[in-house]
Amino acid sequence: MQSLILKLQAEVEARKQQRWDLPASARAAIVGSTLCLAAFFMGAKSAESGVVVQWKERLGVIAPEGALELQRVEIDRLKRIHENSAKFGIPADLAERIEDIALAEGIEPHVAFGLVRAESEFNRRAVSPVGAVGLTQLMPSTARYFKNGVNREDLFDRDTNLRIGFRYLRTLVVKYNGNLELALLAYNRGPDRVDQLLRAGQDPNNGYVSMVLGRGKRARW
Question: Is the pTM value of this prediction over 0.85?
Protein backbone atom coordinates (compact mmCIF):
# COMPACT_ATOMS: atom_id res chain seq x y z
CA MET A 1 0.00 0.00 0.00
CA GLN A 2 2.88 2.36 0.67
CA SER A 3 3.83 2.20 -3.00
CA LEU A 4 0.30 3.12 -3.99
CA ILE A 5 0.29 6.05 -1.58
CA LEU A 6 3.61 7.35 -2.94
CA LYS A 7 2.39 6.95 -6.52
CA LEU A 8 -0.87 8.77 -5.86
CA GLN A 9 0.93 11.52 -3.96
CA ALA A 10 3.25 12.02 -6.93
CA GLU A 11 0.30 12.22 -9.30
CA VAL A 12 -1.48 14.74 -7.07
CA GLU A 13 1.63 16.93 -7.15
CA ALA A 14 1.76 16.60 -10.95
CA ARG A 15 -1.89 17.61 -11.26
CA LYS A 16 -1.23 20.74 -9.24
CA GLN A 17 0.89 22.02 -12.14
CA GLN A 18 -1.32 20.67 -14.91
CA ARG A 19 -3.13 22.88 -17.42
CA TRP A 20 -6.90 22.43 -17.41
CA ASP A 21 -7.73 22.85 -21.08
CA LEU A 22 -8.40 19.16 -21.82
CA PRO A 23 -11.95 17.88 -22.36
CA ALA A 24 -13.57 16.31 -19.31
CA SER A 25 -13.56 12.87 -20.97
CA ALA A 26 -9.81 13.09 -21.56
CA ARG A 27 -9.15 14.17 -17.98
CA ALA A 28 -11.23 11.26 -16.69
CA ALA A 29 -9.32 8.82 -18.88
CA ILE A 30 -6.01 10.12 -17.56
CA VAL A 31 -7.14 9.75 -13.97
CA GLY A 32 -8.43 6.23 -14.63
CA SER A 33 -5.16 5.20 -16.20
CA THR A 34 -3.21 6.66 -13.30
CA LEU A 35 -5.23 4.74 -10.75
CA CYS A 36 -4.82 1.50 -12.72
CA LEU A 37 -1.06 2.01 -12.78
CA ALA A 38 -1.09 2.75 -9.08
CA ALA A 39 -2.99 -0.46 -8.41
CA PHE A 40 -0.39 -2.37 -10.45
CA PHE A 41 2.46 -0.89 -8.42
CA MET A 42 0.63 -1.70 -5.20
CA GLY A 43 0.46 -5.36 -6.23
CA ALA A 44 4.04 -5.47 -7.45
CA LYS A 45 5.37 -3.95 -4.24
CA SER A 46 3.08 -5.58 -1.69
CA ALA A 47 5.84 -7.79 -0.32
CA GLU A 48 8.13 -4.80 0.17
CA SER A 49 5.35 -2.88 1.96
CA GLY A 50 4.76 -5.84 4.22
CA VAL A 51 8.43 -5.90 5.21
CA VAL A 52 8.35 -2.20 6.08
CA VAL A 53 5.26 -2.61 8.24
CA GLN A 54 6.74 -5.66 9.99
CA TRP A 55 9.97 -3.76 10.67
CA LYS A 56 8.07 -0.85 12.24
CA GLU A 57 6.00 -3.32 14.20
CA ARG A 58 9.09 -4.95 15.73
CA LEU A 59 10.40 -1.56 16.79
CA GLY A 60 7.08 -0.77 18.40
CA VAL A 61 6.46 2.18 16.07
CA ILE A 62 2.97 1.14 15.00
CA ALA A 63 0.64 -1.84 15.26
CA PRO A 64 0.01 -3.69 11.95
CA GLU A 65 -3.74 -3.07 12.04
CA GLY A 66 -3.22 0.63 12.64
CA ALA A 67 -0.66 0.93 9.87
CA LEU A 68 -2.90 -0.77 7.35
CA GLU A 69 -5.89 1.33 8.33
CA LEU A 70 -3.88 4.57 8.02
CA GLN A 71 -2.70 3.48 4.59
CA ARG A 72 -6.24 2.70 3.47
CA VAL A 73 -7.46 6.07 4.71
CA GLU A 74 -4.69 7.88 2.83
CA ILE A 75 -5.34 5.90 -0.35
CA ASP A 76 -9.06 6.74 -0.18
CA ARG A 77 -8.20 10.40 0.40
CA LEU A 78 -5.86 10.59 -2.57
CA LYS A 79 -8.35 8.80 -4.82
CA ARG A 80 -11.06 11.30 -3.89
CA ILE A 81 -8.71 14.20 -4.63
CA HIS A 82 -7.95 12.71 -8.08
CA GLU A 83 -11.60 12.04 -8.82
CA ASN A 84 -12.86 15.47 -7.74
CA SER A 85 -10.02 17.23 -9.52
CA ALA A 86 -11.09 15.52 -12.76
CA LYS A 87 -14.84 15.71 -12.13
CA PHE A 88 -14.91 19.44 -11.52
CA GLY A 89 -12.00 20.38 -13.78
CA ILE A 90 -10.00 22.02 -10.99
CA PRO A 91 -6.32 21.81 -9.97
CA ALA A 92 -5.48 19.06 -7.50
CA ASP A 93 -4.25 21.52 -4.88
CA LEU A 94 -7.70 23.13 -4.73
CA ALA A 95 -9.39 19.72 -4.58
CA GLU A 96 -7.00 18.74 -1.80
CA ARG A 97 -7.74 21.84 0.30
CA ILE A 98 -11.51 21.51 -0.11
CA GLU A 99 -11.26 17.86 0.97
CA ASP A 100 -9.02 18.45 3.98
CA ILE A 101 -10.60 21.67 5.28
CA ALA A 102 -14.12 20.26 4.92
CA LEU A 103 -13.22 17.21 7.01
CA ALA A 104 -11.48 19.39 9.59
CA GLU A 105 -14.63 21.51 9.92
CA GLY A 106 -17.00 18.54 10.12
CA ILE A 107 -18.44 18.78 6.59
CA GLU A 108 -18.65 15.82 4.23
CA PRO A 109 -16.40 16.45 1.20
CA HIS A 110 -19.16 15.83 -1.37
CA VAL A 111 -21.22 18.56 0.31
CA ALA A 112 -18.23 20.90 0.38
CA PHE A 113 -17.48 20.43 -3.32
CA GLY A 114 -21.15 20.94 -4.20
CA LEU A 115 -21.34 24.11 -2.14
CA VAL A 116 -18.22 25.67 -3.69
CA ARG A 117 -19.44 24.78 -7.18
CA ALA A 118 -22.89 26.29 -6.53
CA GLU A 119 -21.52 29.43 -4.89
CA SER A 120 -18.55 30.38 -7.05
CA GLU A 121 -17.84 27.74 -9.71
CA PHE A 122 -14.48 27.32 -7.91
CA ASN A 123 -13.46 30.91 -8.65
CA ARG A 124 -11.71 32.34 -5.59
CA ARG A 125 -12.06 35.90 -6.94
CA ALA A 126 -15.84 35.65 -7.38
CA VAL A 127 -17.90 38.55 -6.04
CA SER A 128 -21.70 38.56 -5.98
CA PRO A 129 -23.90 41.61 -6.73
CA VAL A 130 -24.60 41.94 -3.00
CA GLY A 131 -20.92 41.76 -2.01
CA ALA A 132 -20.42 38.10 -1.08
CA VAL A 133 -16.80 37.13 -1.66
CA GLY A 134 -14.66 34.20 -2.72
CA LEU A 135 -15.03 30.44 -3.07
CA THR A 136 -17.86 30.04 -0.55
CA GLN A 137 -19.34 33.51 -1.18
CA LEU A 138 -19.07 34.92 2.31
CA MET A 139 -20.34 38.29 3.37
CA PRO A 140 -17.55 40.07 5.29
CA SER A 141 -19.91 40.71 8.22
CA THR A 142 -20.69 36.99 8.48
CA ALA A 143 -17.01 36.07 8.22
CA ARG A 144 -16.09 38.40 11.08
CA TYR A 145 -18.48 36.50 13.33
CA PHE A 146 -16.22 33.45 12.93
CA LYS A 147 -12.84 35.20 12.74
CA ASN A 148 -12.24 38.54 14.41
CA GLY A 149 -10.53 41.15 12.29
CA VAL A 150 -10.97 39.39 8.96
CA ASN A 151 -11.52 41.85 6.12
CA ARG A 152 -12.88 41.63 2.61
CA GLU A 153 -9.49 41.12 0.99
CA ASP A 154 -8.70 38.27 3.40
CA LEU A 155 -11.70 36.39 2.02
CA PHE A 156 -10.04 36.06 -1.37
CA ASP A 157 -7.47 33.81 0.29
CA ARG A 158 -8.39 30.23 -0.58
CA ASP A 159 -7.88 28.54 2.78
CA THR A 160 -9.32 31.40 4.84
CA ASN A 161 -12.48 31.47 2.76
CA LEU A 162 -12.97 27.70 2.75
CA ARG A 163 -12.39 27.36 6.47
CA ILE A 164 -14.82 30.11 7.44
CA GLY A 165 -17.44 29.05 4.88
CA PHE A 166 -17.43 25.42 6.00
CA ARG A 167 -17.43 26.45 9.66
CA TYR A 168 -20.47 28.63 9.01
CA LEU A 169 -22.25 25.72 7.32
CA ARG A 170 -21.39 23.43 10.22
CA THR A 171 -22.84 25.99 12.65
CA LEU A 172 -26.07 25.98 10.64
CA VAL A 173 -26.20 22.17 10.65
CA VAL A 174 -26.02 22.28 14.45
CA LYS A 175 -28.67 25.04 14.59
CA TYR A 176 -31.08 22.89 12.59
CA ASN A 177 -30.41 19.75 14.64
CA GLY A 178 -28.44 17.95 11.94
CA ASN A 179 -30.80 18.79 9.07
CA LEU A 180 -28.30 19.42 6.28
CA GLU A 181 -30.90 20.55 3.78
CA LEU A 182 -32.26 23.26 6.05
CA ALA A 183 -28.70 24.28 6.86
CA LEU A 184 -27.91 24.67 3.16
CA LEU A 185 -31.04 26.72 2.58
CA ALA A 186 -30.09 28.96 5.50
CA TYR A 187 -26.60 29.33 4.04
CA ASN A 188 -28.13 30.49 0.78
CA ARG A 189 -31.17 32.48 1.96
CA GLY A 190 -30.08 33.45 5.46
CA PRO A 191 -31.23 31.73 8.67
CA ASP A 192 -33.65 34.55 9.57
CA ARG A 193 -35.53 34.14 6.28
CA VAL A 194 -35.63 30.34 6.56
CA ASP A 195 -36.91 30.55 10.14
CA GLN A 196 -39.56 33.08 9.10
CA LEU A 197 -40.84 30.79 6.35
CA LEU A 198 -40.88 27.75 8.62
CA ARG A 199 -42.85 29.62 11.30
CA ALA A 200 -45.38 30.60 8.65
CA GLY A 201 -45.72 26.96 7.59
CA GLN A 202 -44.15 27.65 4.20
CA ASP A 203 -41.60 25.61 2.30
CA PRO A 204 -38.21 27.41 2.22
CA ASN A 205 -36.92 25.20 -0.59
CA ASN A 206 -35.77 27.33 -3.53
CA GLY A 207 -33.80 24.71 -5.45
CA TYR A 208 -30.48 25.44 -3.80
CA VAL A 209 -30.25 22.05 -2.08
CA SER A 210 -30.53 20.32 -5.45
CA MET A 211 -27.80 22.56 -6.85
CA VAL A 212 -25.42 21.55 -4.05
CA LEU A 213 -26.31 17.90 -3.55
CA GLY A 214 -27.56 17.04 -7.01
CA ARG A 215 -30.89 15.78 -5.72
CA GLY A 216 -34.19 16.16 -7.46
CA LYS A 217 -36.36 15.11 -4.53
CA ARG A 218 -37.83 17.82 -2.36
CA ALA A 219 -37.40 17.55 1.38
CA ARG A 220 -40.13 17.52 3.98
CA TRP A 221 -39.65 19.79 6.93
Answer: no
